[in-house]
Amino acid sequence: MDLPPLEALPLTPGKAVAVLAILVIALLNVRAGRRPWYLARWEDAFGLVGLCLLLDGQYMGLVDAPRERMMGEVGRILYVHVPSAWLTMVAFTLTCLFAIGFLVTGWRSLDLLVESAAEVGVALGIVLQLTGMLFARPTWGVYWDWDPRLVSTAVMLLSFIGVLTLRSLLTDPDQRANLTSAGAILATTSMIVTYFSVRWWRSLHQMQSSPDTVASPMVLVLRINAFAMLFLFTWLLVRRWRLARALAARDEAPPLPSAEVPA
Amino acid sequence: MTPRLQRLLLAAAAVSVLGGTLGALSMSTMGEELVYYWSPTELHAKGDAARDATVRIMGMVVDGSVEWMPEEQRLAFRVTDGSEEVAVEGTGAPPQMFREGIGVVVEGRLHADGVFRSQTVMVKHDNAYAPPAEGEMPDEVYRALQASSAEGT
User: Fold this and answer.
1) Do residues B20 and B77 both lie within one domain?
2) What is the tens place of the pLDDT at every residue in A122-163?
3) What residues in A contact B25, CB-CB < 8 Å?
4) What does the alpha-carbon distance between residue A220 and residue A226 come to, in Å, rounded to a whole number?
5) Chain A closest CA to B35's CA: distance in Å?
6) DSSP per residue over B94-147, as a string?
7) Do B84 and B147 reside in the same domain of the chain?
8) Are A219 and A126 contained in the same domain?
9) pTM score, two decimals?
10) B95 to A174: CB separation less than 8 angstroms, yes or no
């Protein structure tokens, strides 16, 4: 990956805040044990850096980046739509790897990570689908059409929502973990079909873009937004996993002894 | 069956279904039989079978073929796949990206007079994104269309 020259990276408010945040995190780590609430956990640093990068990336996307030749100003939604597509794929790929890992090792943490990654993936997928529709109306002319890419994306989302629904219906912990993981692996089929849909079939949606087909100032902005979303994704995933762990600990805890009123 | 064996069997079953489905899909000819749109050549090859059936066709808008009739809110143009052309008539203003030389997917029917009449004109953008070239006005075509349609109504 050839990095752009430094002067191509203008100092924007978001970037300044990001640099400051990294310094603050470094300082606070030196004085471990006295961290403020927003850095209570290691993943909060990811969340903070991700937020700063996102502010910066969106500022660049809305202000600095050139307007698109065909789409004009509307094309700027690219900087939300494409990173959310990438991160949806990352989330569901991780879901599948965690699921295989759980079935092979039986580690409880991996089962909780399957649930967390799938849930974050569904949230990102909804952002993907909604921004896609908002992008499509002014450019293609329709919010929705029965195009292979659009349909496979919807099927992918419904598959993972189905897995999460199944999980919520099962009560036996072992059965729940096994079936969630098996279901997640099966649902991954729809993710891979979604990825290849624009290559296998004719569609209204274009093929994947690459740095060869996208002008370099736009590639830079896309990358910043993609890293922003990656940091935020990590933060969300770990937060969700901690929640899942806390809920599991509550469910497995022995019932409290009933309070007996002394005679 | 131990819980461990049960999990491994589940993993093996799920992974083989995943691999099998993807293998079958990538090998299958579904992409040739069940298509989202036809090209003008394919539409013509169907002959009379294609008439009066609602289908989608995709092609590039032929340079110099676009005619916008604001009074009737009617848009006429020809699409080509490089070898054959189809005359298309749509109703209403087209999407903002519509212009000569761009790919379009149109949904409608081929009438007996050889004109493909469509209610839905969709623009198919390729995977290239670039800033406007020197002196190029991205919204020019659309603005011109809007201006002429405002005059007509």
Assistant:
1) no
2) 999 999 999 999 999 999 999 999 999 999 999 999 999 999
3) 193, 200
4) 10
5) 6
6) PPTT--TT-EEEEEEEE-TTSEEEEEEEEEE--S-B-PPPTT--TTHHHHHHHH
7) yes
8) no
9) 0.86
10) no
